[in-house]
Amino acid sequence: MLFDLSYQLAYYKAYHLHQKNVAIHLCCIPLILASAMTMLYATGKPWILYSLATVYSGYYIILHRKVGAMASAFLVAIIILIQKLNTLFPPTVIFRSALTIHILSWAAQFYGHFHFEKRSPAVLDNLVQPLVLAPYFVLFELLFNAGYERKLHDRMLAQAVQLRRDKQ
Predict the structure, then answer these.
(1) Geometric angle at alpha carbon 26, from 103 and 42, rounded to 5°
(2) What are the TM regions of this chain, as residue ranges (predicted)?
(3) pTM above 0.85, yes or no
(4) Is the dihedral of CA 4, 74, 54, 134 positive or negative?
């Protein structure tokens, strides 16, 4: 199931069926990703960030070649932005800003889960899967909304609804 794209998206989607919660995630997950990457870069060991971005990219490409390549390009763009920011601002300002964005974005997501979904977020049931798949989920949600891979979307949504029923 690790390399079953439909199942991976369905597992995550099962926690994100309410449109307002999905909207929160569409905004907050890219912010969480970028702020986490920024804080990793701030450790003074950028190889940690580069290694994780490479692992994420590889996994995303294995799941879906085209969308994985798009996600990988997005990760590279974030890294370039982080490097540029580090030439313009003091590291403490960058780190504190990233930490603030990170905390507020997580808080918004938890609010979305408890207020709209009426349940805990996926990260409380399975730490790794949501942290790895959340950015990919956002990209797929945007692509699905544009009509991309309609059959995959329909199959994933049916699986998600069934997974949600099974967990209740």
Answers:
(1) 40
(2) 21-42, 62-81, 93-111, 131-148
(3) yes
(4) negative
